[in-house]
Amino acid sequence: MIVEIAEAAGRDSVDGLVAACFGHPGLTTWEVRADGRRFVAVSGDEALVAGDPETCAGVIAVHPTTRDGYWLVARESGLRYDVQVGGVHVGAPTTGMWLAAGPCAFEDEADVLRIAKQVRDQGAHALRVGVYKPRTSPYNFQGAGRAAFASLRAIRSETGLPIISEVLDPHDVHALAEVVDCLQVGTRNMSNQALLTALGGAPVPVLLKRGAGAPLAEWIKAAEYVVAHGNPHVIMCARGITSFDTATRHALDLGAITAVKRATGLPVVFDPSHSTGDVRLVRAASTAAAAFGADGLLVEAHDAPHTMYRPGDGPQAFPPAGLAELVETAGRVRELVEAADHAA
Ligand code: PEP
Ligand code: MN
After folding, report:
1. With contact defined as beta carbons under 8 Å apart, do 23 and 50 qualify?
2. Is the pLDDT of residue 132 over 80?
3. If DSSP codes are grouped into helix, strand and coil, which group holds residue 27?
4. CA torsion through residues 179, 184, 188, 191, sign
5. How confident is the model at residue 312 (pLDDT cuts 50, 70, 90)?
6. pLDDT at 96
7. Whole-prediction pTM value?
8. Which residues lie across from 268 on neighbouring strands?
9. With respect to CATH, is domain 84-343 assigned 3.20.20.70?
């Protein structure tokens, strides 16, 4: 339950509301702001709510969650989120596809810097690069971790590109947010609620990948966690889901792009690299995602994939030199489909 309170409501009104309606130990309350409005969020069984919050001083409205269990990010809430990475809007009002590209993992400063310059010169809006790598096997390279932070700072200042990097541990959120511009939640952590809650306090936006086995409503509720804990800047990233069929690495969850855009006001981007696992499919997957309304792309790009520490990710690495054409093709297809839908 989300209770909207007046901007001018004083501490007395809020404390009065909490004491009168939410004093039960089974209920937890906290204040949250979204889209310039002020709310008291309530966790716990609604049957434990005493009295009628609507009648308390300072209360504007009581918003029950949707059937699927979220409200702040729901399109029907009417709240709008202006999500920017390094000053660039993701989705409206930016026109054209937003692009983040770069290597899977940080391995070597000179390599990442070289690739960062290439992706910047191809028009990328951000560099993606992982310093904490969530590996399915403990025997794979786990990322450079804090040892790479100074290099990230140097690369950011030399290229001017904002950086997106994955965080695995709630304790690393603030330190990593000092050296990057957007924190990624990977597919394996989409339902790590401790991490999502910590990201609610992050000073940078969050790129939230869909769990490979997560139903749409769970993915949206994961975004609600971040927003409800104070960070309204969430980008949804579709990246394929587990299927009985392994012709591509994952089954492309393209319909989910449209569904999330309809259900929420959040920007939605697509990862054509981890979804297909095959560089030869990256253009087709990007273009298809654009046709489904994706606001942008998160692409693994490397100019010498055979040198990567993890050869398994090499076959999906897109050549940086092709990124401008990739985004231009995808953007054109999106425009064509939008125009035809509009005319229909
Ligand atoms: C990544 O983007 O580097 C990554 C590990 O992706 P995913 O979480 O989608 O597997
Ligand atoms: Mn990868």
Report:
1. yes
2. yes
3. coil
4. positive
5. confident
6. 84
7. 0.97
8. 236
9. yes
Q: Are strands 59-63 and 2-5 parallel, antiparallel or unpaired?
A: antiparallel
List the chain domain ranges: 2-70, 84-343
> Which of 269, 274, 309 is the best mutation target for the ligand 1 pocket, counting ligand atoms within 8 Å of the beta carbon and taking the most?
274
User: pLDDT tens digit string along 32-47?
Assistant: 999 999 999 999 999 9
**Following DSSP, what letter does each residue of 266-321 receive, concatenated?**
S-EEE-HHHHH--HHHHHHHHHHHHHTT-SEEEEEB-S-GGGSS-GGGGGGPBPGG
Q: Is 184 exposed, middle or buried (0-12, 13-18, 19+ CB in 10 A)?
A: buried
Q: Say which residues have a Cβ less than 8 Å from residue 343's Cβ, sequence separation at least 6.
A: none
Residues in the ligand 1 pocket, defined by CB under 6 Å: 104, 130, 134, 166, 186-187, 209, 239, 271, 274
Q: Which two tokens stand for residue 68?
A: 């699927």
Using a CB cutoff of 5 Å, list residues around ligand 2, an ion. Answer: 104, 313
